[in-house]
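// run 5 | inverse folding | seed 20
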């Protein structure tokens, strides 16, 4: 019995982010980004009416696992924006980023959105791969926009996708 639980292929559902998720979201954010957003920052963003998010949850976990992934987005006046997205490194390339993004795109469209924007470091190959696969195209760039902890600068790409 235990053995069959342990060998179970993980299954995930994508559900709306709730205020009680903010702590786990901030923990994963801190793991994946050099400038972490804390629990309070996520709470404050999520309490704004135009902001919404989704989290991935494993539906067949035997023990409670760290949050698999999340996305946070905003929609106002026909335009959506992806604020941040992250997936557990252990679950990379299993399709969670894609599913989270699809949920955010659908929600923005349901709220009347016509386009979705995002900003990404031009050197972030996994994120660029994901966004291009979803149909995002580069519409601008900000040179030397990001700086890492050693001061090295990189370009931010602004990308857009029409929501239909
Ligand atoms: C970007 C990120 C969310 C992608 O999540 P993911 O769950 O691994 O992505 P998916 O498994 O859904 O991949 C979907 C597609 O994205 C692209 N992709 C994902 N990882 C990639 C990689 N390492 N290199 C190139 N393309 C990649 C591929 O096109 C992939 O489709 P395929 O597997 O059929 O080829 C994840 O790498 C992450 O959390 N990164 C750290 C945080 C971050 O950089 N967030 C974005 C800030 S703008």
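// decoded
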């Amino acid at each position: 019995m235990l053995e069959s639980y342990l060998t179970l292929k993980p299954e995930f559902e994508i559900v709306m982010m709730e205020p009680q998720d903010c702590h786990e979201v901030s923990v994963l954010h801190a793991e994946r980004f050099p400038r972490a957003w804390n629990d309070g920052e996520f709470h404050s963003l999520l309490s704004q009416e135009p902001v919404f998010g989704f989290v991935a949850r494993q539906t067949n976990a035997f023990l409670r696992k760290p949050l698999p992934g999340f996305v946070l987005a905003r929609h106002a006046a026909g335009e959506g924006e992806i604020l941040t997205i992250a997936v557990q490194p252990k679950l990379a390339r299993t399709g969670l980023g894609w599913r989270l993004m699809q949920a955010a795109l659908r929600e923005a469209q349901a709220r009347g959105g016509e386009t979705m924007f995002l900003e990404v470091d031009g050197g972030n190959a996994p994120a660029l791969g994901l966004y291009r696969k979803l149909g995002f195209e580069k519409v601008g760039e900000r040179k030397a926009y990001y700086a890492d902890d050693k001061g090295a600068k990189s370009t931010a790409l602004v990308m857009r996708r029409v929501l239909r």
